[in-house]
Amino acid sequence: MSIALETPSAEKKDKKPNSAHLKTVPETRELRDQIRDAAQAFVKTIDRSKPLTKPLLQRMGEDLLNNMGQSEQYLGFAMVAVSNEFWRDQVSAIDFSRRLLLLPHCLKNAEGCPADYDEFGLDCRKCGACEVADFKTKAEDLGYKVLVSEGTPIVLKIIVSGHIDAIVGVACLNVLEKAFDKILLAGIPCVAAPLLSSNCRSTSVDNDWVAELIDLKTAPPEAQTKTYVHLMRAAHGLCEEPELSRLAPKARVKPGQAATDPLAQHEAIAYDWLAQGGKRSRPLITLAAYDALKGAKGTKSADGLDLPDHVKRAALAIEAFHKASLVHDDIEDDDTFRYGRETLHRQFGVGVAINVGDYLIGLGYRLVSRDRKAMGSDAAADILDKLADAHLKLSEGQGAELLWRDAKDKSLTPLDALKIYALKTSPAFEAALYSGIRLAGPAEQYEKMVIEFSRHLGVAFQILNDLKDWQGDADNKLVAGQDVLAGRPTLLLALALEGLQGKDRQDLLGLLHQEHAAGSELDSNVVEQVRRLFHRAKVFEKAEKLIDKSRARAEAIADEADPIELRELLYYLVDTVLEKNTAPIEPPSLPFSIGSLPLVSAVAAAGS
After folding, report:
1. What residue spans of 69-107 are helical by DSSP H?
2. Above 90 in pLDDT, residue 289?
3. N or C: which terminus of the chain carries fewer CB neighbours within 10 A?
């Protein structure tokens, strides 16, 4: 008899769990083995066809420890043990050549590692003086790909690229706790052995446990857990060669040829920009919505993916529109970086960048209009109408932002900012979700739901983006405070103007006018002063509450969605699109340094 996992809607009512203080590794091997054995028996009663989430995993770990009469200080370890047993059969069934062994740097010889780094990481075969060498050599002999790194973003990039299908990891409980959200959301089969301490030096692990996990090999289990990895890979593949040129053949240059004349060069710039980074969440939404209303076969296996070319082209059109809007937005705000490199207008000039944006808009409409026979003329017309509506709303929102930026009166209410957000960000999600649904069949019954869900999702996403401006990220926000210096009407600014009184409010307005008059050169002193005023007005805390409010409203709409496959997709979108950056926003008492923001530079190295 199996125990059905709780429905996603039940999970959403819980406060986001925090197990940061519950990461003690059991001191004795005997107790570690007892918890592992108990987890094995516990998981046998669970329906493993349903996705595993972090809140549910935490509750399972708590139940396991309660049943054993053990302290909650071992919760992190218990969660790893339960997760391992949940995924064990599925990891075992994946070929060694499709697995990644992820090892930590801190297992290296503490007295100094003599191994050299090559393009594949540490070259341990010439040394063999520590556990890293033992595990790495054993795994590589079986056919594993091995990475010595702590970086979850790197792992996700490798997974989405399609090179691996399962992970065997070794890490401290601190790192594993951070990885749970991303790995579980993606539905990636994974097992892990926790390090016995988290001091990042001279640590150790149960070596036989790691060896056992590396050696796992069985026939495929009957129950496969639902995953969006296959659809994520399909969405990423749309914008990569050779799929990009197959779906949208280049008109000016043939594949493999050099772009020698101006027409070919312009086309090459546009296609290169279309292929650049980002999560590609919008084309994923289109593909996944179509798949959900066709039975969600693509969430069960790669072989179950059934995405006709006209569906792929519609998803690619959504991405083309998005990339066009980013080009124009970067010009209007004179942003410096996008996807970890200079923005297009900084590379080629404003004129070329404007034209590339226009080109991508035309390409997007053509991708849909030329597939109208395969889509059906009514469906194509409905989708084109939704895309046009999204363009109008986006232009309205961006226009309102630009007019506010250049106005002398810098007063701004939170409601004003939220209206701009609803116009700027929500329409893209709405168009992506509607297109996937409409391609699968009539969409009248879903139209109201799509509009309301997308509005709450888009608003929360934009507020998160505001917070990123003060944290930095690996893709776009390479310096902090850009939005303030660019004079954007953000919700954070509106909350500050609402919350500050007297001299503080006048000081903030004065800083905005000062930066507007001085231009867009980055002034760390101004950023520091604004940051202090934002903290004084408790802006960041208020923004987090508004995100939670929008998230709850989006989840409430998802609760009512049918069929269940679509409902589960909406829950997944809330969790992934609204994934929070864990980097802290520095409090006013700490020194501020624009150049000290963390960059995930290792991502590029791992992808090379």
Report:
1. 75-92
2. yes
3. N
- pLDDT band at residue 509 using 50, 70 and 90 as cut-offs: confident
The neighbour count for residue 370, using CB atoms within 10 Å, is: 13
Q: Would you state the pLDDT for residue 160?
A: 78
H/E stretch holding 237 = helix 229-238
The tokens for 238 are 């749309």
3 state SS of 571: helix
Question: Contact at 8 Å (CB) between 439 and 508?
Answer: no
User: 225 with 50: CB under 8 angstroms?
Assistant: yes
* Pairing label, strands 99-103, 145-148: parallel
pLDDT digits (tens, 9 = 90+) for 453-496: 999 999 999 999 899 888 755 444 445 677 776 778 999 999 99
In the chain, the domains with their CATH numbers are 8-215 (no CATH), 236-375 (1.10.600.10), 379-608 (1.10.600.10)
Cα angle 589, 590, 591 (rounded to 5 degrees) comes to 125
> Contact 320/364 with Cβ under 8 angstroms?
yes
Handedness of CA 507, 513, 516, 518 (dihedral sign): negative
Which residues share a beta bridge with 148? 103
Distance from C-alpha of 392 to C-alpha of 325, rounded to nearest angstrom: 12
pTM for this structure? Answer: 0.77
Single-letter code of the amino acid located at 414: P
**Inter-helix orientation angle 309-333/262-274, to 10°:** 100
Q: What's the gap between Cα 417 and its chain centre?
A: 24
Q: Which of 115-124, 155-164, 402-411, 450-459 has the highest mean pLDDT?
A: 450-459
Reported confidence tier of residue 337, pLDDT bands at 50, 70, 90: confident
**Rounded to whole angstroms, how far apart are CA atoms 398 and 452?**
20
CB distance 139 to 214 below 8 Å: yes
